Amino acid sequence: MLNAVERKIEQYISELNDAHVLSLYKKLPHGKRLRTKLILKIAGNSLKVIKTASTIEMIHVASLLHDDVIDNANTRRGVISLNSSSGDKTAIMMGDILYSKAFFELCNISSEVARVVSNAVVQLSLGELADVELSKKFHTNRDAYLKMLYQKTASLMEASAESAAILAGKPRYAYRQYGHNLGMAFQMIDDILDITSDSKTLGKPALHDFFEGKVTLPYMYLYEVLGDDDREYLLSLYRKRLSEDEALWIRKSMKKHHIIEKAYLEAKELIHEVINLMESLGESDLSNIAKEMIEREF
Ligand code: FPP
Ligand code: MG
Hints:
This protein is mainly alpha-helical.
């Protein structure tokens, strides 16, 4: 059924009657389609569900196109990013096209679903701006960071699960909670993998978050346990292209202070909460998706 979503997205883009836009879209790498998987598992595969998943994936792709311009990223999912191959203007407009076509289609699906999804996109945009602001200087503001994570990543997963529940006539708030926790845990694990994985596995440079100015939870926790001299050294590495020795120092210090375990445990708790919730609703597939997330390696 994932295929039906791919075909629907291509149909939507073909309807724009613009060969250039279609060819640009076809060159974009497909992601894991995690939002689609959630939606289909919650709501089955009726046409309305396929359409909803397609519009949400288009919005997600649009947000990543814009994000790569904002982050000045060269790669996305292991291949050259559109901003890098075709320039910022093309990437921004391609994002705008995908986003607006998705909304045009959403209006024909269900006004309630359109309301939930459009609210999530407002959160997404607020989150991206907060991310930009929080990346300007080193901070240890955990609450601000978690709020930004919710807005930037969890809000669209939450909206995906809630929309699917609306379409399936299931209890929307339970599924919303599922999407929320999954989204938060997903981003927290992403932040951990940025530190623990290598560039090849990530499809982007490793330890890149700190270079981009992103003070993720592991860096905050590390800062909190370090003595004055080490704190100063950590701050000197902020936004810097790291040498191998510097990268090794970060990894070793995190290991010494069990930082990764601490951050991972937080993600795990969110996941366990929804595993229990989904099991109580008899949704074993959804609980398995949550289980797989904490075993994710890239
Ligand atoms: C990736 O973050 C970015 C997001 C998940 C959301 C970006 C949202 C916007 C640009 C607002 C979109 C607005 C519209 C109208 C579509 P990241 O840079 O931490 O992760 P990465 O490593 O995948 O780049
Ligand atoms: Mg980015």
